[in-house]
């Protein structure tokens, strides 16, 4: 093996090989086709990654020299696994170089814009890790050249079969050269995968690192199966998450909707939780996985498809919130814990309507738990089995911050009252607390104020209309007209009786002029203001009656003066 790869692995803390790596490395480094079967977490990535990097970087291996076109292709089923394999290959080959500089590994997967991936291919690439759909799209568009690929890897082949990628994989295999090395890795080997291997692999060597069902009954993974009620599952899971020595935990569901519901419920209970499922965007899924790997969150809720191939060694607990579809899915789920020689705990919750499905899984794997024990969130055996402290509840209450006695107390400044400068208006004009003089009062003051207060609705000597009363009640047409006429007639008659003859005549003349809409002194018709506003029917009738009532009074006043 090249010393650059050995140096990089040493810096990653990898000093010994696992079973699958020990069996595959000699054959893969020699360029032979092979089928590797081992459960998830047994080191399959470096089992094919190390030989892949060694062969494309070594001229004596028989591969085409690096010139910027892809020399190795790794096909994976999911985006998360694509990013993970890319990162592992970059770390293992960071000291390898090509004709221009460091070895380039590029990930190609859906959910991201085409432009960035096309630009990366134009700048040259040595190893491509991608999902079948996006790889086939770029190959059909002539952006991805597969004519010089010397090493081909199919990782998690059984999962790609379940997702319906088998036709895409067959088309991609038809684009690569016939003279190549092909490695196929999978946790299980169903019939279609065996057929695929016989079609596209050349006399492959089948390597099995363990017994067929050894992964399901691994001694390092303690398995507990409980029959739980659907309405009590969230409370039960919340108590399991408070078990002693619990580290990173993965919770599996069958549907995307259930995954998000469980994540939201646990977040409300105070747990640091994230979700990974198909309804989330690619960026949100990558952020959740990054937080889970960094330890920012310690609970990850995921569906089977989204979590396939996620390689996180620190997972201590796996919870099957819903019963798996079959024994293969069960093997993949609990394979997230007890990885790389570590111990783990797998808890499976079975609802009443899932007992038949679980019975089939138990029989296929020989677990010896055909009838799970009925369990609730407060069952004593749940606390004793999983090491849950007594008295825990389904909610984590964060402690309130303690008050510092030495902290400086800052008094809040007293607020200054706000001053409101609002002015009341009536008829569009400001008023200062005094009510507008009524028409009747204006008639009584006719002697003291010359030409003041003409009939309501008419213009005075200055051409302005009097302000209208806002609290005036609407009256009927006849009643309003009669009141206006009576008030005007009474005012004019009273002025006639109390004033001298000359002044009476003068006042009557001014009053008549005002009623006719002309100026008593100049004879010019003053400008009327706000004539465009429509008046109520009662008010208009009152104005007309008042104007008519002024005519007899004017005649009487003139006759009195002549006499």
TrEMBL record:
Would the keyword Hydrolase be found if you checked this record's keyword annotation? Answer: yes
Domain of life, source organism? Bacteria
* PANTHER family, per the entry: ATP-DEPENDENT RNA HELICASE DEAD (PTHR47963:SF8), DEAD-BOX ATP-DEPENDENT RNA HELICASE 47, MITOCHONDRIAL (PTHR47963)
Family in the record: Belongs to the DEAD box helicase family.
Helicase ATP-binding domain location: 25-207
**Pfam assignment, any one:** Helicase_C
- Enzyme category, top tier: hydrolase
Stretches of Low complexity bias are at 448-461, 483-517, 538-550
Q: What is this protein called?
A: RNA helicase
Gene Ontology MF annotations: ATP binding; hydrolase activity; RNA helicase activity; RNA strand annealing activity
């Amino acid at each position: 093996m090249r010393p650059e790869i050995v140096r990089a692995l040493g810096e990653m803390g990898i000093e010994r090989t696992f079973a699958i790596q020990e069996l595959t490395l000699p054959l893969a480094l020699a360029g032979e086709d092979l089928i590797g079967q081992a459960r998830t977490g047994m080191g399959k990535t470096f089992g094919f990654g190390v030989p892949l990097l060694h062969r494309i970087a070594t001229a004596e291996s028989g591969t085409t020299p690096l010139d910027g076109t892809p020399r190795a292709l790794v096909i994976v089923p999911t985006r998360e696994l694509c990013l993970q394999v890319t990162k592992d290959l970059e770390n293992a080959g960071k000291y390898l170089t090509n004709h221009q500089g460091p070895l380039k590994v590029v990930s190609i997967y859906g959910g991201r814009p085409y432009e960035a991936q096309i630009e990366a291919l134009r700048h040259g690439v040595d190893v491509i890790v991608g999902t079948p759909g996006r790889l086939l799209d770029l190959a059909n568009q002539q952006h991805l050249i597969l004519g010089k690929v010397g090493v081909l890897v199919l990782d998690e082949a059984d999962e790609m079969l379940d997702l319906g990628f088998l036709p895409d994989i067959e088309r991609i295999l038809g684009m690569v050269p016939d003279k190549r090395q092909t490695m196929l890795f999978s946790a299980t080997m169903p019939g279609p995968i065996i057929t695929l291997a016989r079609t596209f692999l050349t006399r492959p060597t089948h390597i099995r690192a363990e017994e067929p069902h050894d992964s399901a009954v691994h001694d390092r993974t303690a398995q507990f199966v409980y029959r739980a009620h659907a309405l009590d599952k969230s409370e039960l899971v919340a108590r399991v998450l408070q078990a002693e020595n619990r580290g990173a935990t993965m919770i599996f569901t069958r549907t995307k909707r259930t995954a998000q519901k469980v994540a939201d419920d646990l977040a409300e209970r105070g747990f640091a939780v994230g979700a990974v499922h198909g309804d989330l965007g690619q960026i949100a899924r990558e952020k959740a996985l990054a937080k889970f790997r960094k330890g920012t969150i310690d609970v990850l809720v995921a569906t089977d498809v989204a979590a396939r191939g996620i390689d996180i060694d620190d997972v201590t607990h796996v919870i099957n919130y819903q019963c798996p579809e079959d024994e293969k899915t069960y093997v993949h789920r609990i394979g997230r814990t007890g990885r790389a020689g570590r111990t783990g705990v797998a808890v499976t919750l079975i609802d009443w309507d899932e007992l038949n499905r679980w019975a089939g899984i138990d029989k296929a794997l020989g677990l010896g738990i055909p009838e799970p024990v009925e369990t609730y969130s407060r069952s004593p055996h749940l606390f004793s089995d999983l090491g849950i402290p007594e008295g825990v509840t389904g909610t984590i209450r964060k402690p309130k911050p303690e008050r510092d006695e030495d902290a400086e107390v800052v008094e809040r400044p007293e607020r200054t009252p706000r001053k409101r400068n609002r002015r009341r208006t009536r008829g569009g004009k400001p008023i200062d607390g005094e009510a507008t003089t009524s028409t009747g009062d204006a008639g009584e003051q006719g002697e003291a104020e010359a030409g003041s207060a003409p009939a309501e609705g008419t213009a005075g000597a200055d051409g302005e209309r009097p302000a209208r009363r806002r609290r005036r009640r609407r009256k009927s047409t006849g009643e309003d007209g009669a009141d206006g006429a009576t008030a005007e007639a009474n005012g004019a008659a009273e002025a006639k009786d109390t004033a001298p003859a000359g002044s009476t005549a003068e006042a009557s003349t001014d009053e008549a002029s005002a009623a006719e809409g002309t100026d008593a002194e100049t004879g010019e018709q003053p400008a009327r203001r706000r004539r465009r506003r429509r008046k109520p029917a009662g008010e208009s009738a009152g104005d007309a009656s008042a104007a008519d009532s002024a005519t007899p009074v004017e005649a009487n006043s003139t006759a009195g003066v002549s006499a």
